[in-house]
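Data availability (excerpt). The following record was deposited with the supplementary files.
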Amino acid sequence: MSQTAVADLFRPLLGDNRCLTDADSCQRYGVDWTKVWAPAPAVVLLPETVEEVQQIVRLANEHHVALVPSGGRTGLSAGAVAASGEAVVAFDRMNKVLAFDPYDRAVTVQPGVVTQQLQEYAEQQGLFYPVDFASAGSSQIGGNIGTNAGGIKVIRYGMTRDWITGLRVVTGKGDLLELNKGLIKNATGYDFRHLFIGSEGTLGFVVEATVKLARQPKDLAVLVLGVPGFSEVMNVLHAFQQQIDLTAFEFFSDKAMRHVLAHGVPRPFDTEAPFYCLLEFEQLSEAAGDQAMAVFEHCVEQGWVVDGVMSQSLTQLEQLWQLRERISESIAPHTPYKNDISVMVSKVPAFVQEVDGVVQREYPDFEIVWFGHIGDGNMHLNILKPADLPKEEFFSRCNNVSKWVFEIVQQYNGSISAEHGVGMTKKPYLQYSRSPEEIGYMRAVKALFDPNGIMNPGKLLD
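Predicted structure:
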């Protein structure tokens, strides 16, 4: 079906101003943050109601049109890329907070609500939405649900999955399902809500979500510590977790630090180290701060920490967080090839040593930048493109790296995608984290909810 024919199919439903075919709109809505596939959607659709989403799906089924969901387009696995003439369904206009209940501490939102918008709304109610990451200012709740987004607070608060108490979804058949209805306790059989969380739009579209909120953390403090080696990073984590309930434990390499410093963020202290840890905790009393300093001094005595600094004000806390939060921004001009991998926390040191050894041995001319949410076993391996190497050759060479890395992931019973989804970039490697039997059951689930295969085809599964 031609681009014009696909657009004409939906135009009577949405009108010209919500059925877009111009080149700028197709470029804007047809991509995410990956740079491998060029966007080539047939049309961009902007529904405003649940009923319109249902009608879009039913028309697509009738005329065999593939649909690709589009949220904040901040994904890193090409899960929202429309590269083959699909119709993009963008949820930018379904962006309202629909209801709030202070007793349930729950808010119901449409999928186009931006993560930061939800965080600010929760704050206005004296509450807290804890799922947080660098793209919070542009990512949307629907996309977060589709990839089960994590971020910097997982060690304390968990993933997106842990905060979704209800969903309304339009399946690949066009049926509207209400899943769990906001209940905390519900023991009535299969919980399809959890099938849709992390399904990357391959089963249907989330059109409403009920999200629980938490109490606001108080008097947060941050420590940034210089650490001589990766095993010492884990010793520091263990020492602090024995004494303090951490809200975050992040790590980054000296190479990551150098890129951030080059973008104007001040160095936290003069001493240089191969690795750095960033710890956050609630300093609810003077005793809590004293306890943190006692653990810090113990780590120094053990040789696990070479230097460190603790925030003394909100301004300094925010400045220290910049060391971690601006890494992705600072390395972006170098066209990083990203791997988002995880293993059990106890296996992290041996795993990182093995992966780093393979990459450094095979590609000594590539700069390797490590950072991540080490407190939950999630590491981001970033390989930076040399300036004189063509992008196509760089990505081709990195594909070999991925195979070697994922073979190690498989040996450690880890995940090839900790929080960014599978999309198209990780799809060829799914077997490193999922058995053939599991993949077979996943295909069967997909066929049940999307029998005609129109929902985000080519993503997650072939």
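Summary of structural features: The first strand starts at residue 19 and ends at 20.
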